[in-house]
Please model this.
Amino acid sequence: MGRGGRGGADAAGGTGIINSRGDIINSPIEQSHPVDVAFGAKELNQRQQKVLDMLPDCGSQVIVNKRDVSMLDLAALTSDTGNEFAMFTCKGKRMIVRGDESSVPLFESDIIRLREEGYRWSGHTHVGFTEAHLIASDGDIKVLSLTGQSNSVIYNSLGKYALIQPKEC
Model:
């Protein structure tokens, strides 16, 4: 759903965003939902596949337009590949990093550099289908601290998500 909008259905039964004048605008992001990908009901859509093609290996990074990828897309990529993905956002662009089945290879110096360049940690994915896969690791909390942010998100392979916040003492 877009900022300030609300979901609605058009005359053809599709969904879109209703703007302030009440006009329905078709959503610019067509989704292959992670659940559908996980259980083989759908393949990645063209846009999701294009992002994946730009990230062939663990450690691959790509910068794309902000409107071209969402966290739900990364959850679909995780569902399809069994790999974690991280997203950092700065103004109108997003940097996506591909990991492996249990982590995304970023060093402290990488996180600090991204923060200094104005990037925010939008979130990352964990491979798995349960609520347990939405629990932040000590490494996740450390990245949050290095970014100087108060929160971020974790998505699992089904597209469910949880907020990451600093651990309480």
Q: What stands out?
A: Helices lie at 34-38, 46-53, 71-81, 108-116, 138-147. Confidence is low (pLDDT under 50) at residues 1-29. The chain has two domains: 1-27, 31-164. The chain is about 25% helix and 25% strand.
